[in-house]
Amino acid sequence: LHYPLRRQRQMCIRDSIMTVFSLYMAWFFLSTETVTYEIWRGLFSSLGMKVFTFAALVSVMLHIRIGFWQVLTDYVKSTGLRAVVQFFINLVAFVYVAVGLFVLWGL
Predict the structure, then answer these.
(1) Rounded CA gap, 97 and 17, in Å?
(2) Is residue 58 within 8 Å of residue 97, measured between CB atoms?
(3) pLDDT per position as a tens digit, 38-80
(4) What is the pTM of this model?
(5) Distance in Å from the first CA to the final CA of the chain
(6) pLDDT by residue (tens digit) across 15-29?
(7) C-alpha angle with apex 48: 43 to 54, nearest 5 degrees?
């Protein structure tokens, strides 16, 4: 598959995962009268929800990386400064996923 088309397909998949996850969580909060710790823990206790949440976290991380890369490429002309800012943004995005992994699986 041609590179731009592959990139477009990957973006659609990431966006779909984030959208479905957001809609599912909205449905959960709207349909649950009172959210207690036990209910919240029960929601995230299944393997399917853990994998779904992890996929959403990775999708957000990639969305952040690509979005900031585009913005920084357009507005930060200094290559060195852009590289430093991108490094820290990528680091924060990775830490976001790593913390999510630790919280989900209790590693």
Answers:
(1) 15
(2) yes
(3) 999 999 999 999 999 999 999 999 999 988 988 999 999 999 9
(4) 0.84
(5) 38
(6) 999 999 999 999 999
(7) 90
Q: Find where tokens 């710790």 sit.
A: 37
C-alpha–C-alpha distance, residues 20 and 107, integer Å? 26
Upper half-sphere CA count for residue 46 (Cβ side, 13 Å): 6
CA quadruple 52, 29, 104, 39: dihedral, nearest 10: -120
The DSSP symbol for 44 reads T
Amino acid at 60: V
Those residues with Cβ within 8 angstroms of residue 29's Cβ, 6 or more apart along the chain or in another chain: 35
